[in-house]
Amino acid sequence: MTVLVTGGAGYIGSHMVLALRDSGERVVVLDDLSTGHRDAVPEGVPLIIGDVSDQALVRDIVAQHGVSALAHFAARIVVPDSVADPLGYYEANTVKTRALIAAVQDAGVGQVIFSSTAAIYGEPEESPVSEEVPPAPINPYGRSKLMSEWMLADAAHVLPLRYVVLRYFNVAGADPQGRSGQSTPNATHLIKVACEAALGKRPGLSIFGTDYPTPDGTCLRDYIHVTDLADAHLRALAHLRGGGDNLVLNCGYGHGFSVREVIAMVKRVSGSDFPVTEAPRRAGDPAALVSRADKLPGLLGWKPRHDDLETIVRHALEWERRRA
Ligand code: UDP
């Protein structure tokens, strides 16, 4: 009963590996180390370096490790990067997901947890946004993930396949015990960038757009602690093992913070008044993305433990200091 974690050497995947290990599960990681790190995979967890679309490799891993469930994290995730390289994103996030799903199906694995994103909502008219709002992504990243959601749903009609799709809002923070955190080179995500600025690893940061129709003119996002997110995956796994239905669930806390509020929190927690400049809007950014967050607790009994921006920032900073 091993869980195959693709992207397990990456930021969110490595926290899933820790969560699985902490609860006594067997894990095997498949990662090409394009953005992940060998060190992020704990000792004792097999790391296979390879491509998720290498079907012969995937079938071998399933057979050799007794894999019964797949948690598919490996993906490209940067919105502006997807605008610049759409074909690369469809390849990484859609085409390779198709190959992976087909390979695990061939090998007899019928339980899939898929990492999706709030970017599939685009510029939602309602905020907070519920899972029932029709998807309308506004960038190639969101579309590449939505196509994979649809592919899973279509496949599950005719194959012995059950899935939980988790739509992540803005994932941040780090393992409270300091065992993992975000190490992605050239990271672009706000809390990561702000922590680097606070510790002098970069000269400062820019706010991308101050003329959005939000209270302070900067974008609103729903920041979720990576450890709470990993816990949502454990609950999804238990649901699938218990014979539960296919589900599509938002992963967020249900409240948003503006870019300025996040920066103010990082300055306060770090005690560093790093330089901040105002810059034009970034391509593909919606003004507000906040989750309606009742379905995940209601259906899977998920109880977040770190729903607090200060805690998220503190853990992110502790990780960033450790990496200094
Ligand atoms: N952002 C910013 N400066 C930065 C990085 C991000 O102003 O250096 C803003 C970005 O424009 C967006 C919000 O912070 O409004 C969250 O962006 P992030 O890249 O963290 O996540 P996304 O919502 O794009 O997945």
From TrEMBL:
Coiled-coil residue windows: none
Molecular function terms, GO-annotated: UDP-glucose 4-epimerase activity
Enzyme Commission number: 5.1.3.2
Gene3D superfamilies: NAD(P)-binding Rossmann-like Domain, UDP-galactose 4-epimerase, domain 1
GO BP term (any one): galactose catabolic process via UDP-galactose, Leloir pathway
Range of residues in the leader sequence: none
Catalytically driven reaction(s): UDP-alpha-D-glucose = UDP-alpha-D-galactose
Domain of life: Bacteria
A Pfam entry, by short name: Epimerase
Keyword vocabulary terms for this entry: Carbohydrate metabolism, Isomerase, NAD
Pathway the protein takes part in: Carbohydrate metabolism; galactose metabolism
UniProt xrefs under InterPro entries: Epimerase_deHydtase (IPR001509), NAD(P)-bd_dom_sf (IPR036291), UDP_G4E (IPR005886)
Domain NAD-dependent epimerase/dehydratase: 3-252
Enzyme class: isomerase
Protein family: Belongs to the NAD(P)-dependent epimerase/dehydratase family.
Subunit structure: Homodimer.
Protein name as catalogued: UDP-glucose 4-epimerase
UniProt organism field: Saliniramus fredricksonii
